[in-house]
Amino acid sequence: MNNTNQHSAYIDILHEELMPAMGCTEPIAIAYAAAMAKKVLDEMPERIVIEASDNIIKNVKSVVVPNTGNLKGIEAAAVAGIIAGDADKVLEVISVVNDDERASIKEYLSSKDISVKASQSGLIFDITIHAYCGDSSVTVQISHFHTNITRIVKNNEVLRMNSDCDEVNMSTKTDRSLMTVHGIIDFAESVDLAKVKEALQQQIDFNYTIATEGIKNSWGANVGSVLLNTWGNDIKNRARAFAAAGSDARMSGCELPVMIVSGSGNQGLTASVPVIEYAKELKVDDDKLYRALLISNLVTIHQKTGIGRLSAYCGAISAGVGAGAGIAWLNGGGYKEIAHTIVNALAIVSGIVCDGAKPSCAGKIASAVEAGILGYEMYKNGQQFYGGDGIVVKGVENTIKNIGRLGKIGMRETDQEIIKMMLEN
């Protein structure tokens, strides 16, 4: 692939991955499917059946659905989409909800027939909403990633069907296999910023705003405030504190949007906020910040490609490593510094589990960002982990490949045990 085509592919990947969302993306995907079902049905459903894969159940169980008055769970997410959702807004589907609608959501939950079933599709990411009113019915299915509507059926008539979809072919439009750390750095340093500036500026504006809200006010476990109160205002501490604070706010129902990365608002926050904080400390211009964010976002996406959208492997780790790469570049690092930062950080924190979306995500984000920064500082001080040290192998691409194998295959049984534990509570 020539340089022009490669740059075009990286631009497409960024625009596919960076998008605005309000709230944790799994319950929002449920709300999106439900809003679409209501739109197609064209009347208020009397009964709803929700089918969800285990990983969806895991990521929706403990998180507050925004704009619902602190309601949690699959049923609340679906009903919010039915009552107040605007399907045309996609992952901002319930960004505008008034008091009457909030009251109607609670009334619907208490008075209507709503049931949740485990999906039998065998897919890791699968949501199906069945909505019924009298003799009319609509089915809407989202599979593989948060905005991918694969099936719409109304009164037994198929309106949309992607029967050959799979995670590799349908979860993204652009081939991720071309991605390399070397290629990412080349792209970030040479791309015409006008082609990516709008999305990156929106990421800066949205993600830093919710991070600041998380620091200023009480949200979740207040991990960011604890970090600042305990270890002070040093840049390394601020970087992880503000990222954690943004997560605490969104996990607890804060009604501010974020720009997601790899289908996750937490990953979007982790990949961006520490880099923004370092850029402020170093007093760099906007263009340098944009290029550092390109490195952070794309290194995050590169790692997640092998792991998949949902896994027992905590996605914030990938984003913390990405942030470390962006911070290394901001400090003058090139390919060698960035590659070693990635390998060092992965050696430290790979294996932290994902047990659903909830306040403890903020603590994991803090650890991931710390590892990203430590990975860079180790290399600056002449220290590194070597091939043969555990899952680290020689070469950054080989280590990233091992991480994909660990997250997708090695932690499959771990994922099932985590889900069993969560459903027992």
UniProtKB/TrEMBL annotation:
InterPro entries: Ser_deHydtase-like_asu, UPF0597. Residues 91-419 form the Serine dehydratase-like alpha subunit domain. PANTHER family: UPF0597 PROTEIN YHAM. HAMAP family: UPF0597 (MF_01845). Belongs to the UPF0597 family. This is UPF0597 protein KEM10_16690.
